[in-house]
Amino acid sequence: MNSEKVTAADQVEPSKTARMLEVEILRYDPDQDEAPYYQVYQVPCQEEWVVLDAVNYIKDKLDRTLSYRWSCHMAVCGSCGMMVNGEPTLSCHAFIRDLPDRIKIEPLENFPVARDLIVEMDSFVEKLSSVKPYINAAIEKTPEEGTYTQLPQQLQDFQLYTQCINCLLCYSACPQFALNEDFVGPAALALAHRYNLDSRDRGRSVREDVVASNLGVWECSFVGACSEVCPKHVDPAAAIQQSKIAATGDYFMRFLTPWKKTTKGQKSSKEIHDEASKR
Length: 279
Ligand code: SF4
Prior knowledge:
Blueprint: E1 19-27, E2 37-45, H1 51-62, E3 81-84, E4 87-90, E5 102-106, E6 113-115, E7 118-119, H2 122-130, H3 152-159, H4 169-173, H5 175-179, H6 186-196, H7 204-211, H8 225-229, H9 236-256, H10 269-278
Parallel strand pairs: 1-5
Antiparallel strand pairs: 1-2, 3-4, 3-5, 6-7
Helix pairs in contact: 2-6, 6-9, 9-10
């Protein structure tokens, strides 16, 4: 956390205080505390403040020991996710005026706590990496053959899934991830789907071992909480269900067309997806 940044909390004027907010925060420093505990702060808030402004006020004016992540303050970096009154929330995206006079802030659920509101993200980063989230096995082009082109319609096929900011809210809301931390999970699977739908990509088969595994899309029970909490409207639940349809199509195609080459990287992900959708 960069405490040198100018925040709304730095600019508060007592005369402009719209309301006093009671903020209860779960505190825990594994190096010092035997167990987590709650600490309550009184925060003078202005009308336009979001939850992150109140947390910044606490850090800057009341308690320098509070630890949390934030950076952009505009729902782009994805780092300020917290539980606010039990709901996974991007704290820069939640206005104080929409909340009651007392709020409870806790670290995102379903992740180990590193300190106070900071959770460990290592397992998530490994999952993201496991789905190979980049253009894979694209057809090689020489400079003379020109650049890759993509029609607006082709971009539209996956654009929704490019909006993810890796905020982890969907993992915190997911009941399946709560039961099984090895579940690849909503954001990583949505990102895999994004690349599988990209007309330039030929890497669907190299993602299949992870995406179409029991810990991949088949672990999802389609509760849909991930899509409900997503601040960027990515709709990972839809991505996962579409991936299930495509994976089922692949499975049956192997029986129906056993003579077909199944060499990895031979077919456009878009072509395979379209085929599966038509069936
Ligand atoms: S899919 Fe949505 S909720 Fe999940 S990490 Fe991406 S932006 Fe956050």
